[in-house]
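Annex B. Sample input.
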Amino acid sequence: MTTVNVMGHKYTAEQITKLNTQYKTVKEEYDSLLMLHSQKSPNIGYKNWFYKTDKGYKYANHGVLVRLNLLQKCINNIFNLYPPNKNEKLNNEELDNINIFLHSFVINTSAIFDSIAWHLYEEEKTKTTNLINIDIGIDKNKFKKQILEKDSKYQKLIDNLVKYKDKLKRQKKIRDSLVHRIPLALRPGYLSKENYILYKQEMKKIIKTNDKETNNQTKNLIKGFNNYRNKKKMLDNKKDLLTVITPVVCFWNEEKEDNLILHFYLESTWKLIIEFIQKTLFIDNPSG
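Annex B, continued. Sample output.
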């Protein structure tokens, strides 16, 4: 996941080309998983994704695959509303819709790993002893010891948990920000430092002039307020013209503000999930 400290991040031509190329693979990767799904003839299990239990099938099919569909739809909708090469400022409706899809993406990203864990639990729970609901999670110690470490076919999953430890930890912080603190949100735009300073200076002049005009006299309060409102409106309109679009998303990370880059975040997270599914669930049927 790409993070930034500068609010005015803007994609380079090379980054735009790379993002658009990666975006085209999202639907292809999703469709390829569905193709494997359709190649299985029995009611339970896919060609390379074998199920021993009804619940294991349901968590995989109605959990993992449904969430995967939601994730690729969120990516598609966000890229349609805000392609990486877009320069025009987003209107309020576009901004709201992007944030709605972004929230859905974050929630289902966390939830898909839970669906994977519950699928594995239902498939392998005869090997466990005393796991309770709170222990079910691919990164939970009891789950790893009683489910994953008892079968060599899950070694790739264990390797991925180590390989992507930092990314999974950061994803949890992003999810916690959304659920427990302040919802993460795409910045409506960016005003350069120079223009922001000019804006603040003009605002001070307006406030100072307004204070002088009213002079704390009741008869001048309404006139002063109207003058202030009109001048501020003109200044805000000028500010909007100077505001540029920026793909920076802000979230609250352990009591401090943090940032990520929208399109980079979507695509890198999608790749992470696809790799987990391919290396975790698409394993050979040992009895087949």
